[in-house]
Amino acid sequence: MIVDGFNRVHNYLRISLTDNCNLRCFYCMPEEDYIFTPASQLMQVDEIEALAKIFVAEGVSKIRLTGGEPLVRRDAADIILALSKLPVQLTITTNGTRIHEFVEVLEQANIRSLNISLDTLKAEKFQLVTRRNQFDLVKKNIQLLLDKNFHLKINVVVMNGLNDNEINDFIEWTKDTPVHVRFIEFMPFSGNRWTSNKVFTMQQILEVIGEKYLYTRLQDEKHDTAKKYMIPGHAGTFAVISTMSANFCGDCNRMRLTADGKMKNCLFSKQETDLLTALRSGKEIVPLIQQSIRSKAKELGGQFTADFEHIHAEEIHNRSMITIGG
Ligand code: SAM
Ligand code: SF4
User: Fold this and answer.
1) Does some domain include residue 233?
2) CA-based Rg of the chain, rounded to a whole angstrom?
3) Coil, helix or strand at residue 218
4) Is the residue at 204 inside a domain?
């Protein structure tokens, strides 16, 4: 078992397959010109499989593949199929642009639930946020997955003044479409121009929805990061991930592996443990995992508190989101 100093059992591993991406979301990519990590420095298929197996032997029962955009990696299908043989719930977070090339692989790997990111329902705003013109493709791919009965969570990063005026458009979408929209509070990472006044909080999100709809809270599942709600008569549901205004660290079960093989015990942790170099030089991995998790901070990587209005983003030591793996 992987247990930290606060008795939290860690059984959920998020593996970043790459820091490469075919979109350029401004809140995720650093502002300056970004050079993607060369393929040779990334974990190779057999290395991802070997590390995943070690985590599984230590009690991991859920693995999420992420990035960067996991599906831009040339050998993504091999990785998905290799990990699908492990006794874990395997899932993926994607921007949806490559889904049409991967539906069969996902089915073969028995992945039935996916997270797709989509911050706006307007093509022009999609271009503004992602700096790419792929809105129609993403919408088409979401429909493709719905037609094939996948369970779809839609990740929406809500930013004050950018897309907060679309919250109820997303809710309206859930009326006849079985999508599960998750509104995410904007988080600070290196180079993402975060300021506290751009955060649109859970309370504000619920107020906007409450002006138009009567919603009820759904039962939380263990380790849920999202507070879930339903609106009677709607085919889909919605949820809020309130990392900034009401964190859920107390029940955290998550660990991360970056695409270059560094373990992070928290999304916001400063320190990293180089598992890939250890694996390549034949060192014992389990003690490194245990050591990393024992040093996990109580909340938010020990770098800030829920009093997010007083955060100075430039003082936080971390990677950019694209290199951590969201
Ligand atoms: N490329 C894939 C995608 O976009 O779904 C997977 C990687 S992405 C880093 C994972 C998730 O992190 C996405 O839903 C994205 O919107 C979210 N994300 C990125 N930067 C964020 C930030 N600063 N605050 C909140 N969520 C963020
Ligand atoms: Fe790429 Fe996802 Fe980051 Fe957007 S959020 S730049 S799609 S990794």
Assistant:
1) no
2) 19
3) coil
4) no
Write down the pTM of the prediction.
0.94
Measured by CA distance, the residue closest to atom 8 of ligand 2 is 68
Q: Please report the pLDDT score of residue 39 as a whole number.
A: 86
Of the pLDDT bands very low, low, confident and very high (cuts 50, 70, 90), residue 99 is very high
Is the CB of 324 inside a 6 Å radius of any atom of ligand 2?
A: no
Task: Report the separation in Å between the CA atom of 254 and the middle of ligand 2, taken as the mean of its atom positions.
Answer: 20
113 CA from centroid of ligand 2 (Å): 19
The SS3 of residue 160 is coil
* Domain CATH number, residue 299: 3.20.20.70
Would you say residue 236 lies in a domain? no
189, 317 Cβ separation under 8 angstroms: no
| Total domains in the fold of the chain | 1
Distances (CA, A) of 265 to 25, 62, 222: 25, 16, 19
**Nearest one of 81, 18, 72 to 44, comparing CA atoms:** 18
Domain hosting 311: range is: 12-157+248-324
Would 77 be classed as within a structural domain? yes
Per-residue burial over 148-160, b = 16 or more CB atoms within 10 Å of its CB, e = otherwise: eebebbbbbbbbe
Q: Tell me phi and psi for residue 240, to 5 degrees.
A: -130, 130
29 close to ligand 1 (CB < 6 Angstrom): no
Residue 95 CA to ligand 2 center (angstroms) comes to 7
